[in-house]
Design goal:
Blueprint: H1 12-20, H2 26-44, E1 47-50, H3 52-67, E2 75-79, H4 106-113, E3 117-122, E4 134-135, E5 139-140, H5 156-163, E6 169-174, H6 180-186, E7 189-192, E8 212-217, H7 220-230, E9 261-264, H8 275-290, E10 294-297, H9 305-321, H10 334-344, H11 348-369, E11 374-378, E12 394-395, E13 398-399, H12 408-414, E14 420-427, E15 433-439, H13 445-459
Parallel strand pairs: 2-3, 2-6, 9-10, 9-11
Antiparallel strand pairs: 1-3, 4-5, 6-8, 7-8, 7-14, 11-15, 12-13, 14-15
Helix pairs in contact: 2-3, 5-6, 9-10, 9-11
């Protein structure tokens, strides 16, 4: 007999297996999910729009059809930067406070075709700008491990919802760490995949591969299931391609008995890094060595990465949001306007230089992976900070004059088009998780997931629930 009130405590894999055996009903899964949301969401402010009536209707209409899908009708949360047909999608902006999309993003269509049922939208910073989830429309998402701290961003709502058991699956997006940073700060797992693996859009910047959608879940096993549900080939996305492997979930243990060569860095030799994060990275390396892996301090040269990333990011913001320059500036976050205006002032020579730097970084990263299987670095240079601070202003002796610079340990990896998984490996002095990003060569998600699963198994963090949220 299953306690349906407490189904949220089980992993997604367990719930799906119970649905397959018909030991529980979809209505019971949804009931447990909604009960948990109503109990917990007021404390952390992770879910900003709940579409429970729509979810109930979808289950009632498609119950038999859902039984034959990968996700079996499991509830899914969608980041509020991503369009869902008929569901309020605000992009975290007062300007779009009543916006109802007429069509869904490809990522939503894909997950629905695999049996996912959209249950709600998760909080983001305005236009997903910045790694701290707050906006004037919905307020701030709190870190569930310490409610005075940031949950990270821009996928902070998704990460906090997962960490507290309000969801099994949630989407994230990642331009400069927007998925990786909150995953490691909230004690969940997030994958920034190789661009094109998960179809997305349409958008004004469909040919750019800097920003990608990715799966988020409570553990690596559930993440592999959700990745299977998101991967597709769709010509509507010009970067989409056909993957050449089978199920990530079924192949999750295919590299579990292998020993790997791993390069690691605390800072790429150029970025400041908090002492707690440095110590966490060193301790994680010791764990990997104890597991039998060969780990060396070696990494690709990222010296000019920030110059390239800042230019390309500004170009993306201007391409996507130039129309905001015609709006009342008082309604728009200062950092968003700064990024748009920076992009407006770019000339072709700066774009040319940015592309040249990126190409050099990509080639040197491939050279690195000729010798190593994986690269490990912190997912963030600081532990979660006070939620009343808009962004990190100083680390060690470095002072940041903009909201992007402190994110560059993740942003530099975005330039490489390499898949990267963020996972928590320790806890900071303030009680919140901190962790690493594990980077693999392009298109090697299968190998990456299998390796990260072995790290997760050795850590015993993924099953923990924030004690103040129980």
């Amino acid at each position: 007999m299953n306690d349906t009130d407490n189904l949220w405590k089980k992993n997604a894999k367990e719930v799906i297996e119970l649905l397959e055996k018909k030991e529980i009903q979809l209505e019971e899964v949804l009931y447990s999910n909604l009960k948990r949301i109503r109990e917990i969401n007021p404390k952390v402010n992770a879910i900003v729009t709940l579409c429970d009536e729509e979810a109930v209707n979808n289950i009632n209409k498609k119950k038999k059809e859902l039984q034959n899908t990968l996700l079996k009708g499991m509830p899914v949360l969608i980041k509020d930067i991503t369009d869902v047909k008929g569901v309020r999608t605000t992009y975290g902006s007062k300007i779009f406070s009543n916006h109802i999309p007429l069509d869904s993003d490809l990522v939503v269509k894909t997950v629905e075709s695999r049996g996912g049922v959209v249950l709600g939208k998760t909080n983001i910073p305005e236009f997903a700008a910045g790694s701290h989830t707050y906006n004037d429309l919905f307020g701030t998402t709190k870190n569930p491990w310490n409610l005075s701290l940031s949950a990270g961003g821009s996928s902070g709502g998704s990460a906090a919802a997962l960490a507290t058991g309000m969801a099994w699956f949630a989407t994230g997006t990642d331009l400069g760490g927007s998925l990786r940073n909150p995953a490691s700060w909230c004690g969940v797992v997030g994958l920034r995949p190789t661009p094109g693996l998960i179809p997305q859009g349409p958008s004004k910047t469909s040919f750019s591969n800097l920003s990608v959608n990715g799966p988020m879940a409570r553990n690596v096993t559930d993440l592999s299931i959700f990745l299977d549900a998101l991967v597709d080939h769709n010509n509507r996305d010009p970067l989409s391609y056909k993957k050449d492997v089978g199920s990530y979930h079924k192949n999750l243990n295919c590299y579990s008995d292998k020993f790997f060569s791993i390069g690691y860095t605390e800072d790429f030799g150029i970025f400041p890094c908090d002492k707690e994060v440095r110590d966490m990275t060193k301790n994680t390396v010791k764990l990997l060595e104890n597991l039998g892996h060969n780990v060396n301090v070696e990494y690709p040269n990222m010296e000019a990465a920030e110059e390239s990333f800042q230019i390309l990011r500004a170009y993306l913001f201007y391409s996507a949001y130039d129309f905001l320059l015609d709006e009342d500036e008082k309604l728009i976050k200062e950092e968003v306007l700064w990024n748009i205006k920076k992009g407006q002032k770019l000339n072709v020579n700066k774009l040319k230089k940015a592309d040249k730097i990126r190409n050099t970084i990509y080639q040197e990263t491939l050279d690195f992976f000729d010798k190593y299987d994986f690269l490990i670095a912190p997912s963030s240079i600081v532990p979660p900070f006070n939620l009343n601070e808009p962004w990190v202003k100083k680390v060690e002796n470095n002072i940041f004059n903009n909201y992007v610079s402190w994110l560059m340990i993740a942003g530099c990896v975005s330039l490489t088009s390499c898949p990267s998984i963020a996972i928590s490996t320790s806890f900071s002095e303030n009680g919140a998780p901190i962790g690493i990003q594990i980077i693999a060569p392009p298109h090697q998600e299968e190998k990456l997931l299998s390796f990260v699963k072995t790290i997760e198994d050795a850590l015993n963090i993924s099953n923990m629930i924030p004690k103040d949220i129980n």
